[in-house]
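Quick one: structure for this chain?
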Amino acid sequence: MNENKNRHEFLSQSGKVITACAQLGALSPTSYAAQSTVKSGKVNNAFKITDKHYYLDNVLLESGFVFEDKVVVHTLTELKTLEINNGKIVALHEKQLNQNNALPRYDAGGKLMLPAMRDMHIHLDKTFYGGPWRAPNRPEGTTIRDMIKLEQKLLSELQPYIQERAEKLIDLIQSKGTTIVRSHCNVEPTSGLKNLETLQTVLTRHQSSLTCEIVAFPQHGLLLSKSEDLMREAMQMGAHYVGGLDPTNVDGSMEKSLDAMFLIALDYGKGVDIHLHESNSAGMAAMNYMLETVEKTPQLKGKLTISHAFVLATLNEQQVDEIAERMAAQKVAVASTVPIGTLHMPLKQLRDKGVVVMTGTDSVIDHWSPYGLGDMLEKANLYAQLYIRPNEYTLSRALAIATGDVLPLNDKGEQMWPKVLDDASFVLVDASCSAEAVARISPRIATFHRGEMVWGSVGKVG
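Got it. Here's what it folds into:
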C-alpha cells in the first residue's frame, strides 16, 4: 500500500510527462519485440475487409503462461487462422490447414489479437475535438456551478458541430481499438433534446461498427435546471440510462434529487449512471443513500453505475472495504477515468472486493479538460502504474479494466478468449503479449467489430 501511495504521489507531480513518454514509447520501433510472421501466398498490404465470411490468417493468440517457482515469467502464444462468418468467430484453425479455398483470405501479419476495448464514460455530443485547438478556460477556484453557467453559453456554439465532431471522436476511439461505448449526452433546457437526436442520427450510421449505450445527462442539474420532463422524453426516445449530477452541490437537495433520478429509471425500466464528483460529507451521504435505495429496491440491482465517485478516495482501507462489499452485493459499478491528480482512487481495492470497475475517456479536448486521448489501453497503463507491482502476470491482468474484464487467459493461464461463436470484435496490436501491450501502450493495427473491420488494414492473401 505504501509503495502504491508513493507511486501515486510521483505520478501526481509528473503525470503529464509520464503520459507523454508512454505515447512516445508506443511509437518507438525499438520499444516492442519484433514478431515473426508466417505467410502463405502473395500479400497485398493496406487492405480493407468487406466480406461477411472470410479467413484471417496469422493471428497471434495467447495460449498460456510459463511459470518458474509458481511465478509467471512469460506468456505463450500461437499463430492461428480465424474463420469469421456473419460477425462471429465460427472456427479457430491451425494456421492455414483445412480451409475452404473458395473463401477470401486476409493476413494479420502475426499481430496480437486482444479483445475489443470499451470506453464506458465519454461525451460524444460536446467536444472541441475535430475543430481548432482551444484550451479550457477554468480559472483557479472555478466551481461546478460556474462551469454550468459557462457551458450554457457554449452549447449554442457547439451544437452545429455535434454531428461532425462526434464522427471524428468515433474515428479516434476506433483507431485505439474501442468499439463498445457508453456516451453521456446532454439533456437539459439549453440543449433540449437536440443533442440526443443528433447523436442518435450519428449512431444509426455506425450501428454496424459501434455498440453504444446513451446516458441522458442533466449536466445543469436535474432539479436545478428543471430537466425531469425532458429526461422522461429522452427515455421514451430510447436513451438507455438515466443520468444525474452532484445532488447536493448542484441540485441542493440530495434525497429529492436522487429520488427523482431513481423514479425515472424505475418508471421506464432503465439503468442509472450518475456523475458524483462530491468528495466531502455530501458525497458520502449520496453514496450511502444510493446504496440504501438499491438494497431495498430489487429492480435496481445491477443497474446503478457511479461515475467518478471521488468520495471513495477520502476513505480509509476499512471504510472502502465496507462500502465495496455493499456495492459488490448489489452489483453497483464504478466508472473511473483512472485519475492521476490529488485524489488516489481505491480502484484495485474495489476490484479485489468484487466491484465492477470500468474506465472511460470522459472529456476529449473540451471546456472541461484538454487531456482525453480516447485510448483505453492508455487507461490500463495508468492503472498498472498506479496500482500494481509490474510483472508479466499483473500487467496482463491490468488489461481487464479496458476490455470489460474479457481477457485472453484466466488467472491460471488457461485460454478463455476467443472461443468459437464469440463475437468477432477485437483489435490487432503490435505487441508480443497483453503484458507488453499494457506496459508499452503498443500501436494498434486494425480494429474489428462483429466481423467488420472498422479501422486500420490487413494484408490480403491471393
